[in-house]
Design goal:
- The structure holds 2 protein chains of 2 kinds.
- Chain A is α+β, with helices and mostly antiparallel strands.
- Chain A has 2 domains: 38 residues; 128 residues, Thiol:disulfide interchange protein DsbD, N-terminal domain (Immunoglobulin-like, Sandwich), CATH 2.60.40.1250.
- Chain A contains 2 helices and 12 strands, in the order ααββββββββββββ.
- In chain A, the strands form 3 sheets. Chain A has a 4-stranded antiparallel beta sheet with strand order 1-3-9-6, with no helix packed on it. A 4-stranded mixed beta sheet of chain A has the order 2-12-10-5, with no helix packed on it. A 4-stranded antiparallel beta sheet of chain A has the order 7-8-4-11, with no helix packed on it.
- The termini of chain A are far apart.
- By secondary structure, chain B is of the alpha/beta class.
- Chain B has 2 domains: 48 residues; 162 residues, Glutaredoxin, CATH 3.40.30.
- Chain B is built from 4 helices and 9 strands, in the order αβββββαβαβββα.
- Chain B is elongated and about 95 Å long.
- Classes of the chains: A alpha+beta, B alpha/beta.
- At the A-B interface, α1, α2 and β8 of A face α1 and α2 of B.
C-alpha cells in the first residue's frame, strides 16, 4: 500500500510544483507588464516633445562585403509636425542629413534624399518651405566589411509644427548589417 | 481507489486555473486603470500648460515661473559684452528665446522691433536670447563661431535694435527647459515674471503682456 502510494504522492508533488511555477511566472509577468504601463511625467514629455521622427526599417540587411550596396531607409515624421528636407529653402534652416560614424565596419558612400514637399504655413503664407511630413525614405549606398556589424547610423533633423519649433535632434538609426 | 487521485488532480487543476483567471483579471484591471491614469496625466500635462489668454483668442503658456522672480543671468551679447538681467531692474523686460532655425521666431521678430520702439520711452526693453539648442561641444570653436556668425547675420538682416545675447542654452533649465521656440517671458519692473508665451501667438497678445509688465 505504502509502495503504491509513494509514486502517486511524488506525481502529485511534481504536479503541484509545476502549477506553482506557472502561477509564479504568470504573476511576475503581470507585475512586469504593469510596471511598463505608466511612464514618468518626464518620459511622457520627451515622447510628445522630442520624438518627432521615428526610424521604421530595415532592422537587418545583408550586403556583399566590400561592394557598394543600396539600402532604403524608412522614417516617419509624427503627425502635425514637419522637418526640413535635405535642401531647405532658407540658409538658416537645418537640413535633414543621414550619416554613419566611423569605426562601424560600414561606410556611407552617398545618401539620396527625396525632394521636399513645398508648403507655406498659416502664420507666414509668403514663405515657401521644403519639408518632409508623414513617411519618407532615404536611399543610402553603403559599403560593409566582412562580418556582422551593429551599425548605429545617425539622422539629424529639426522639426516644427504650425506655431513652434523643436530644437535640432540627432536620432540613432540602428541596423544589423551583415557583410557576406 | 485509482479514480480518486485523478478527481483530486482535476479539482486542483480547476482551482489553479481559477486562481490564474483571477490573477489575469486583476492584472488586466490594474493595467487598464494605469493606462487610463497615464492618459489622464498626458491630457492634464497638455492642458495645464496652455490656457486661453484673457481677452485674446490665442493660447497663453502658463509657466511655473509666473509670479516668481525671473531667474537671473548674465550672458555675452554679440559684441562680447556681458549683459545681465539685473541691470534692467526698474524696467519692464521681454525675454525672448529664439533661434536662427526657428521660422516662427523670424515672423515675430519684426513685431518685437516695432513694440520695443513703441514702448521704449515708458521703460520697456527686449532681450533676445539666442537658444540654438545645438549639441555643440564647448571645445568646438569652429562650431560656435559659425553659430555666432549665423546669429549676427540674422540680427543684421532683421535689423534688430535690442540686445541679442548668446548661449541661451546655458540658462534654459532655469526657464523650464525651452523645449519649444519661440518662448517669451514678460518681466515687470520689480523683476517678477507676470506672463509667458510659447510659440507664435499674435502681435496684439504680445502687446497686451508688455502693457501688463509695464503696469498699465
Amino acid at each position: 500500500m505504502a509502495d503504491e502510494a509513494r509514486p502517486r504522492l511524488r506525481l502529485r508533488v511534481e504536479f503541484l510544483k509545476r502549477i506553482s511555477a506557472i502561477v509564479a511566472f504568470v504573476g511576475f509577468a503581470l507585475l512586469a507588464a504593469q510596471a511598463q504601463v505608466l511612464p514618468s511625467a518626464s518620459e511622457n514629455r520627451s515622447i510628445i516633445k522630442t520624438d518627432a521622427v521615428q526610424y521604421l526599417f530595415p532592422e537587418q540587411v545583408s550586403v556583399p562585403a566590400g561592394k557598394a550596396s543600396s539600402v532604403t531607409l524608412h522614417f516617419r515624421v509624427a503627425q502635425g509636425l514637419h522637418i526640413n528636407s535635405h535642401t531647405p529653402s532658407d540658409e538658416f534652416l537645418i537640413p535633414t542629413t543621414f550619416s554613419i560614424p566611423d569605426g562601424m565596419g560600414v561606410r556611407l558612400g552617398t545618401a539620396t534624399y527625396p525632394p521636399g514637399a513645398i508648403i507655406s504655413l498659416a502664420f507666414d503664407p509668403k514663405t515657401k518651405l521644403s519639408v518632409y511630413t508623414g513617411e519618407f525614405i532615404i536611399q543610402a549606398r553603403i559599403v560593409a566589411t566582412l562580418g556582422n556589424h551593429l551599425m548605429q547610423g545617425k539622422l539629424r533633423y529639426q522639426a516644427c509644427d504650425q506655431n513652434q519649433c523643436l530644437p535640432p535632434k540627432t536620432i540613432d538609426v540602428p541596423i544589423d548589417v551583415i557583410g557576406k | 481507489m485509482k479514480a480518486f487521485p485523478m478527481r483530486r488532480n482535476t479539482v486542483v487543476l480547476i482551482a489553479v486555473l481559477f486562481i490564474l483567471a483571477i490573477f489575469a483579471w486583476a492584472g488586466w484591471a490594474n493595467w487598464e486603470y494605469r493606462r487610463q491614469a497615464a492618459e489622464k496625466l498626458l491630457a492634464g500635462a497638455a492642458q495645464g500648460e496652455l490656457v486661453p489668454a484673457p481677452g485674446g483668442d490665442a493660447l497663453e503658456y502658463v509657466s511655473p515661473l509666473n509670479g516668481k522672480p525671473a531667474p537671473s543671468f548674465a550672458l555675452d551679447d554679440l559684441s562680447g559684452k556681458k549683459v545681465s538681467l539685473a541691470s534692467y531692474k526698474g524696467k519692464a523686460v521681454l525675454i525672448n528665446f529664439w533661434a536662427t532655425w526657428c521660422g516662427p521666431c523670424k515672423v515675430e521678430t519684426p513685431w518685437l522691433v516695432e513694440l520695443r520702439q513703441k514702448y521704449a520711452a515708458q521703460g520697456f526693453e527686449v532681450l533676445g536670447v539666442d537658444t540654438e539648442g545645438d549639441d555643440l561641444e564647448a571645445s568646438d570653436k569652429a562650431g560656435w563661431a559659425k553659430e555666432e556668425a549665423a546669429v549676427g547675420k540674422f540680427v543684421t538682416e532683421m535689423k534688430v535694435p535690442y540686445p541679442v545675447l548668446l548661449d541661451g542654452d546655458s540658462i534654459s533649465r532655469d526657464y523650464g527647459g525651452l523645449d519649444d521656440l519661440p518662448m517669451s517671458f514678460f518681466v515687470d519692473r520689480s523683476g517678477k515674471v507676470i506672463a509667458a508665451q510659447v510659440g507664435l501667438t499674435s502681435e496684439s497678445d504680445i502687446e497686451a503682456n508688455i502693457e501688463k509688465a509695464l503696469g498699465e
